[in-house]
């Protein structure tokens, strides 16, 4: 499946989009269900999956997250005592919320390619970012120049429930395109990077999914979105998907987690290399 790009995405204003987007506005509200869900997904899904890829040994001295939104992932990332954690995001509203919630971290408002001080990091993280930017390969290439290792979390939305979705600035999550696995791995080649390790995960197959449902039930009284009938129908569909894993993997999106480096640095990262797995 090739990336599906809405032609109306050209020339859109990402700063305004993510300042005003309802999904991000909701997660900026202290105590909201959306904020609690992001915290849960970071702690129980994103962080563990990304840490699986990071080389064993002492924690890094410095980490950068590009597209940090409201800062939960970079705030959770372990660094050495006195180490540096920096988040950068195009949305001033998201950065204001991140600074208020995590004052011990450094947050920068703007495009990392023009706003970030020229200082190297041990690693750079892009989590749920590349599907939001117009030139994904150039963006990834620029980010990878800031550190010897780059960690990526990318949604793979070549699934039945996303079939026919109108990608673009008006998308419910602001995704400009959908990726299949081949597209996502090909992106690294287009960006001039070499993948050292990767794995693909369906969140509905992990313990985090049950916790997400419990969280939704605690906030709204129902484990699934929608009214009584809609929630019940979604519950039945989810039950069928978990009973038949092949069906679940066709129905639901997955996530690619990958560790990469610039191709000309690959020899220096031989110790990080693993066997790709599905």
What this model shows, in words?
With 278 residues, the chain is of the alpha/beta class. The chain folds into two domains: 7-202 and 254-272, Vaccinia Virus protein VP39 (Rossmann fold); 211-252, no CATH class. The protein has helices at residues 14-20, 22-27, 33-51, 72-76, 92-101, 112-115, 136-144, 181-190, 207-220, 228-243, 245-251; strands at 62-66, 84-89, 106-109, 123-127, 150-156, 193-201, 254-262. It has a seven-stranded mixed β-sheet, with helices on both faces. Helix 4 links the parallel strand 1 and strand 2. The two termini are 17 Å apart. Residues 1-7 and 273-278 have low confidence and may be disordered.
Name a few traits of the molecule.
single chain; 278 residues; alpha/beta; Rossmann fold; 2 domains; seven-stranded mixed sheet; 11 helices; disordered N terminus; disordered C terminus
Number of strands: 7
Q: Spell out the helices and strands N to C.
A: HHHEHEHEHEHEHEHHHE
Shape: globular
Radius of gyration, in Å, reads 18 Å
Question: Widest sheet: strand order?
Answer: 3-2-1-4-5-7-6
How many separate domains make up the residues? 2
What separation lies between the terminal Cα atoms? Answer: 17 Å
Estimated helix fraction: 25-40%
Q: State the CATH class of the largest domain.
A: Alpha Beta
List low-confidence stretches: 1-7, 273-278
Strand content: 15-25%
CATH topology of the largest domain, anyone?
Rossmann fold
- Architecture of the largest domain, CATH level 2? 3-Layer(aba) Sandwich
Mean pLDDT: 89
What do we call the CATH homologous superfamily of the largest domain? Vaccinia Virus protein VP39
Q: Which structural category do the helix and sheet elements fall into?
A: alpha/beta
The number of distinct helices, counting runs of at least 4 residues, comes to 11
Sketch the major β-sheet. 7 strands, mixed
Note the quaternary state here.
single chain
């Amino acid at each position: 499946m090739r990336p599906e790009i809405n032609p109306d995405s050209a020339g859109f204003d990402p700063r305004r989009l993510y300042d005003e987007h309802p999904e991000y506005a909701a997660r900026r509200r202290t105590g909201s269900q959306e904020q609690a869900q992001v915290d849960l997904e970071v702690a129980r899904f994103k962080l563990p999956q990304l840490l699986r890829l990071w080389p064993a040994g002492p924690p890094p001295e410095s980490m950068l997250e590009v597209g940090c939104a409201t800062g939960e992932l970079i705030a959770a990332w372990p660094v050495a005592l006195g180490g540096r954690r920096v988040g950068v995001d195009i949305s001033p509203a998201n950065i204001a919320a991140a600074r208020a919630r995590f004052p011990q971290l450094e947050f920068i408002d703007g495009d990392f390619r023009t706003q970030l001080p020229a200082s190297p990091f041990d690693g750079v993280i892009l989590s749920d970012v590349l599907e939001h930017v117009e030139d994904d390969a150039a963006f990834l290439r620029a980010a990878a120049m800031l550190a010897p290792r780059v960690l990526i979390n990318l949604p793979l939305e070549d699934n039945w429930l996303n079939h026919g979705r109108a990608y673009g600035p008006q998308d419910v999550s602001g995704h400009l395109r959908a990726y299949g696995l081949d597209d996502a791995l090909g992106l690294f080649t287009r960006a001039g990077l070499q993948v050292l390790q990767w794995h693909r995960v369906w969140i509905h197959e992990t313990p985090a999914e049950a916790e997400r449902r419990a969280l939704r039930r605690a906030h709204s009284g129902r484990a699934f979105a929608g009214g009584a009938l809609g929630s019940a129908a979604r519950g039945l569909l989810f039950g069928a998907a978990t009973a038949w894993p092949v069906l679940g993997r066709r129905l639901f999106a997955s996530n690619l987690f990958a560790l990469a480096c610039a191709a000309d640095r690959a020899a220096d990262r031989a110790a990080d290399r693993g066997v790709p797995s599905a």
